[in-house]
Design a protein that fits this description.
By secondary structure, the protein is of the alpha/beta class. Helices cover about 40% and strands about 20% of the residues. GO terms for molecular function: glucokinase activity.
Length: about 325
C-alpha cells in the first residue's frame, strides 16, 4: 500500500439459505463481491455444524481478499448475516426457521464470537432485496419490493432507502401470504401460503402430481422415470425444450405469483418489484403471464407505475444486502 493512501475497507456478507451458504466481501463503498464462495448448508447435520461452516467460510474469504489486496484483517469492518426468519434483530436471534429447523437460536453472537468481528443479523430475503436496491436492479429506486424464489419464498420491502421491518421484524414474509384459504398445508402451520404453490419444491410437487394424474410429458424421460428427482430446474429445462405440460406448470406458477404480486402492488404501490431465484431463468415464459395476471388483478394506476423485473445479482444479492445492512447499522447510510 502506498504511504499516505487510505486502506481499502471491506464488509463480509453471509447469505444463509435452506440449501446453500454463500459468503463474500463487498467494498464498503459498494462494488463487486470478492472472495465469493458457496457450499451446501447441510442443515440436517445440526445448527452447530452450520455455524462452524459459516465461520470457516468467513475466515477463508477474508484471507483470500486481504492477501490479494496486500492488506490485513483490520481492513474488514465486520460481518452482515442474512438468515431465514422470523428473527429478533436486536438480540441477533433466529426465532424460527421451518426450512432449517431452528428455534430461538443466537446466530449473530455465535458467529461474532468465533470470527472476532462485529456482526449484524437480518432476514435473508430482506438482505437480497436490499442488495438489489443497493447494487442491482433497484439502483435509483425509492420504493421496492423483492421476492426470492428458492427452497421457500422470501420477501423484502425497501421504503425510502431503508428496509421496512414492521413492529416485530416480521414484515416482508411474502411467501406466507394466503392465496387460497382452503389450500395446501404450509410448514408455517397456515394453509394456502404462496410458498406452497410457487417455491422451487412446490413447482416440482405440482409437476409430479400432474404426471401421477396422467399428464404426458418429457419430464418423465428426463429423470428416467424417477419422479422424486424432478425439480423446478427440471421443469424449466423441459419448458425451454418445448414441453407443453412443463410450460403449463410454469404458466400456473406465474399466475400464483401474479396473484401475490398484485396484492403487494395494491397495498404498497411500489415503483418496482424484483423477482429473484432460479425460476426466473424461465424469462418471458414466467414474466409475461405474471405481468398479465398483475394487470388483471391490480389497480391500473398502481400497476402502470410499477416495473416487475428479474434480479440483476443472481447468487450475490444476499451477500451484498447483508453487507449493506451492516453498513446501515454501523455507519448510518448506504
Amino acid at each position: 500500500m502506498t504511504p499516505g493512501t487510505a486502506q481499502k475497507r471491506w464488509i463480509v456478507g453471509v447469505d444463509l439459505g435452506g440449501t446453500n451458504i454463500v459468503v463474500g466481501l463487498v467494498p464498503i463503498e459498494g462494488g463487486e463481491v470478492m472472495g465469493f464462495r458457496t457450499v451446501p448448508t447441510d442443515a440436517q447435520r445440526g445448527a452447530k455444524a452450520v455455524v462452524d461452516r459459516i465461520v470457516a467460510m468467513v475466515d477463508e474469504a477474508i484471507t483470500d481478499v486481504t492477501a490479494s489486496h496486500g492488506t490485513t484483517r483490520d481492513a474488514v469492518a465486520g460481518v452482515g448475516i442474512g438468515s431465514p426468519g422470523p428473527l429478533d434483530r436486536k438480540t441477533g436471534t433466529v426465532i424460527n426457521t421451518p426450512n432449517l429447523g431452528w428455534r430461538n437460536f443466537p446466530l449473530r453472537d455465535l458467529v461474532a464470537n468465533q470470527v472476532k468481528l462485529p456482526c449484524t443479523l437480518d432476514n435473508d430475503a430482506n438482505c437480497a432485496t436490499y442488495g438489489e436496491w443497493w447494487l442491482g436492479a433497484g439502483r435509483g429506486v425509492s420504493t421496492l419490493v423483492g421476492l426470492t424464489l428458492g427452497t421457500g419464498i422470501g420477501g423484502g420491502i425497501v421504503l425510502n432507502g431503508e428496509i421496512y421491518h414492521g413492529c416485530s421484524d416480521v414484515a416482508g414474509e411474502i411467501g406466507h401470504m394466503t392465496i387460497d384459504s382452503n389450500g395446501r398445508k404450509c410448514k408455517c402451520g397456515n394453509y394456502g401460503c404462496l410458498e406452497q404453490y410457487a417455491s422451487g419444491p412446490a413447482i416440482a410437487l405440482r409437476a409430479v402430481e400432474g404426471i401421477e394424474a396422467g399428464a404426458s410429458t418429457a419430464l418423465v424421460e428426463m429423470v428416467d422415470g424417477r419422479l422424486d428427482e424432478i425439480t423446478a430446474a427440471t421443469v424449466y429445462e423441459a419448458t425451454v425444450q418445448g414441453d407443453p405440460y412443463a410450460a403449463e406448470v410454469m404458466k400456473d406458477t406465474a399466475k400464483f405469483l401474479g396473484a401475490g404480486v398484485a396484492s403487494i402492488i395494491n397495498i404498497l404501490n411500489p415503483e418496482m418489484v424484483v423477482i429473484a431465484g432460479g425460476v426466473t431463468r424461465a424469462g418471458d415464459t414466467l414474466f409475461e403471464p405474471l405481468r398479465a395476471e398483475v394487470r388483471r388483478r391490480a389497480f391500473r394506476s398502481a400497476q402502470e407505475c410499477c416495473r416487475i423485473v428479474p434480479a440483476l445479482l443472481p447468487g450475490t444479492a444476499g451477500v451484498a444486502g447483508a453487507a449493506a445492512v451492516f453498513k446501515r447499522e454501523n455507519y448510518g447510510a448506504v
